[in-house]
Amino acid sequence: MTTRSRGPSAGFGWLTNGIGVGFRHPKPLFGGAAFLVVACLLPSLITMPMQFHAMSAGTPPSMATSALIMAISVLFGLLIIPLYAGYLQLVDAAEREQPARALDIFKPYRQGEAWRLIGLGLANFVVYIAGIAIIIVATGAGIASWYMQALAAQVNHQPPPALPGGFWIAVALLMAFGLLMMGFYAISLGQVALNRRNVFGAIGDGATGALKNVLPLLLFALSSILVAIVVAIVFAIVIMLLALLAKLISSWLVLAVIVPFYVAMILVMFTVMFGVMYHLWRDVCGDDTVSDMAPAIAA
Fold this sequence. Notes:
Order of helices and strands: HHHHHHHHHHH
Oligomer: single chain
């Protein structure tokens, strides 16, 4: 499977298309995002009571409790991956102007594709952990021991230890690795979900596609930071206006407005995130038919 290299401006295109996709197809994509948000919140209904119980006892969670919480989070995280793929398929159907329903995010489970996608999730997790381990070892093993000391200091309410040598180099490398992993994950998931690629082939495509498109990924990251700053400023202004209304009218009225506003922000965030992933995959690995349709659909 061929992966393509795009110019730096493609990164900005991924962001703008990701922002626009939900507003072009609001009913299926925001509905699907609502189901996805609920699925992502389900693990918290199990792990949060366990954490609150440990906090109320006034003692840090035991190793067994921490391991159980982590195991539950990982298990649910793997089970949600087929829903991510289903949402990408939903975006693809909507952009191709084919029938698309919010419940289509469950298609990978209904069509027996879940195990292959869970396998991809496991493989991506291994790649992620291996990459972090390599960076930490390459920049000095003292970072790992510093992290454990920092955790112990936090539990015992003590000041954190001094930063070890090579810390900022490790931070820079981890940021670069995270940038590549963003492209890697979008491409590999798109290959399995939309091109029916096998897991190992999708991993190879994800690695080569991300390496070929470092510059557009960097421009996408910078553009996302700027957009996030603007959104944060707008959000802060809205919160201040609502606080003013709470003093003038009623705090209950403000609560009735801010909760739907916050939920809408979360749905938009999910829709934009998967819209970006879809358009990134389509630019790098999508077939020529899909790529040629993009201008017509956007118009």
